[in-house]
């Protein structure tokens, strides 16, 4: 009598708790490991990623394949044997053997230890296959399940009313002489060239021909004649007006054009309202460069225009017949100087490149100092900065170590400017560098 079919039944135990259980419904190989696609998960050091622990062969028998560093106890044909002893026997027979293979009979059972996980296995009859629940009858599709009685009555009445018409239209004979209009797209798909209607040429009446000739004659009469004529100025100008325009009207003349009329060169020379002094008083108070730094507040005649828009010492704007009266006037210009000390570099950054960059950036700090001098002409002092330069050359932090200038506006403005600086990168730099330097602000 043939023996009954038996399959593996395995329990996985970790920290004295059954974490997983496998009871096969049919003979098959079983894999273990700490990878997610393994049938049984094992935990701990020296555990395999994915290993076929039980191999099911074509002869219908299981083979236990033990990887190295596996412990435990096995019961083979009624005799208990430790896995370590089996490994010693394997080493004597084949010192270079990579794994231990044991053929199992249906009576085999045992305990295998993989790191922190223990696997208990034995052979048992196959588990019944999981039962598939039938689909509920109340949810099965039916023909009229989505229709109410009112819907069915509406469909039936429409069929009774429109049904005879549809039957008549379907059985009505078609006149073969009627040519149906077919869309050109369908004709192109079917390869049939569409019919092209050739319009018959219309003969023009004699009256239409006469009207066309008259229209051409009218067009010829309306064409303008191009006359080349030099435009001469119609007015004479006094020497005083010309001298006035030469002194203060240059800016306006640059945006004019030739000929008589409003906005031309002659119109500017004739005008006596052009006064650059009024333009400065209306808001032309300072000059800035492309970076937004103020160049200077000096204009001819003294301090020029104040920050509030009022004219201060603008004697040089007065114009006479000989031009602007700037002769004999001394320029009043403040000399502002910023000096930076040698930079102390702590890190991998190139010291020469850092010092050169700081010297080139002094102009940006000077604009902060010039704004403060408007309210405090005697402001002077020194500020010591410590900045951190990343390996990419950007400034990541700015700290003020010493401030004898004692002006919060200059301090906050210069710190904001320094944060926007960018230094040359140093090849091979692995960490940020700290740079300490000082700036002396003085105005004379």
Sequence-ordered SSE layout with sheet pairings:
Layout (H helix, E strand, L loop, with lengths): L6 E8 L2 E7 L6 E4 L6 E2 L9 E6 L5 E5 L4 E6 L2 E4 H11 L6 E5 L4 E6 L2 E8 L24 H23 L12 H7 L15 H17 L16 H10 L1 H4 L11 H6 L5 H6 L5 E2 L5 E3 L7 E2 L5 E2 L6 E2 L2 E2 L11 E5 L3 E3 L4 H10 L1 H12 L7 E9 L5 E9 L4 H12 L13 E11 L1
Parallel strand pairs: 3-4
Antiparallel strand pairs: 1-2, 1-11, 3-5, 5-6, 6-9, 7-8, 7-10, 10-11, 12-13, 14-15, 16-17, 18-22, 19-22, 20-21, 20-22
Helix pairs in contact: 10-11
Describe it.
By secondary structure, the chain is α+β, with helices and mostly antiparallel strands. The chain is built from 11 helices and 22 strands. A 6-stranded antiparallel sheet has the order 2-1-11-10-7-8. The protein has a 5-stranded mixed sheet with strand order 4-3-5-6-9. A hairpin with a 5-residue loop joins strand 14 and strand 15. It is flat.
What structural class results from the helix and strand content? Answer: alpha+beta
- State the separation between the terminal residues, measured CA to CA: 120 Å
Number of strands: 22
Task: Please list the strands of the largest sheet in the order they lie side by side.
Answer: 2-1-11-10-7-8
Helix fraction by DSSP (H/I, runs of at least 4): 25-40%
How much β-strand is present in the residues?
Answer: 25-35%
Radius of gyration (CA) equals: 51 Å
Low-confidence stretches: 248-257, 271-285, 296-317, 326-332
Task: Round the mean pLDDT to the nearest integer and report it.
Answer: 76
Q: What oligomeric arrangement do these chains adopt?
A: single chain
């Amino acid at each position: 009598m043939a023996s009954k079919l038996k399959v593996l039944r395995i329990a996985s135990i970790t920290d004295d708790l059954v974490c997983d259980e496998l009871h096969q419904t049919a003979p098959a190989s079983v894999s273990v490991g700490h990878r997610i696609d393994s049938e049984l998960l094992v935990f701990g050091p020296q555990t395999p990623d994915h290993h076929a622990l039980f191999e099911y062969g074509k002869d219908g028998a299981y083979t236990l394949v033990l990887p190295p560093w596996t412990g435990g106890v096995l019961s083979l044909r009624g005799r208990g044997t430790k896995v370590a002893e089996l490994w010693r026997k394997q080493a004597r027979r084949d010192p270079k053997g990579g794994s231990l293979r044991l053929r199992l009979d249906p009576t085999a059972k045992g305990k295998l230890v993989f790191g922190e996980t223990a696997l208990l296995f034995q052979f048992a009859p196959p588990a019944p296959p999981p039962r598939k629940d039938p689909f509920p009858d109340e949810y099965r599709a039916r023909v009229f399940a989505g229709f109410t009685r009112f819907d069915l009555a509406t469909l039936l009445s429409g069929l009774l009313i429109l049904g005879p018409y549809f039957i008549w239209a379907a059985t009505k004979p078609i006149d073969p002489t009627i040519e149906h209009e077919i869309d050109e797209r369908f004709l192109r798909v079917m390869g049939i060239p569409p019919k092209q209607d050739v319009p018959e040429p219309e003969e023009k009446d004699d009256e239409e021909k006469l009207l066309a000739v008259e229209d051409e004659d009218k067009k010829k009469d309306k064409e303008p004649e191009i006359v080349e004529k030099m435009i001469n100025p119609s007015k004479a100008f006094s020497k005083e007006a010309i001298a006035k325009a030469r002194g203060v009207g240059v800016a306006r003349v640059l945006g004019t054009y030739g000929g008589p009329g409003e906005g031309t060169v002659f119109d500017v020379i004739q005008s006596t309202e052009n006064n650059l002094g009024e333009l400065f008083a209306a808001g032309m108070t300072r000059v800035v460069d492309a970076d937004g730094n103020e160049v200077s507040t000096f204009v001819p005649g003294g301090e020029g225009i104040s920050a509030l828009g009022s004219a201060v010492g603008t004697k040089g704007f007065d114009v006479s017949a000989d031009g602007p009266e700037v002769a004999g006037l001394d320029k009043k210009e403040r000399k502002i100087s910023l000096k930076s000390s040698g930079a102390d570099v702590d890190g991998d950054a190139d010291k020469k490149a850092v010092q050169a960059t700081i010297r080139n950036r002094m102009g940006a700090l000077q604009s902060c100092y010039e704004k403060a001098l408007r309210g405090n002409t005697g402001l002077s002092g020194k500020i010591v900065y410590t900045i951190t330069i990343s390996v990419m050359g950007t400034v990541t932090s700015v700290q003020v170590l010493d401030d004898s200038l004692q002006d919060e506006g200059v301090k906050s403005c210069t710190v904001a400017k320094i944060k926007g600086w960018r230094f040359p990168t140093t090849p091979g730099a692995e960490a940020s560098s700290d740079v300490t330097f000082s700036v002396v602000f003085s105005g004379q």
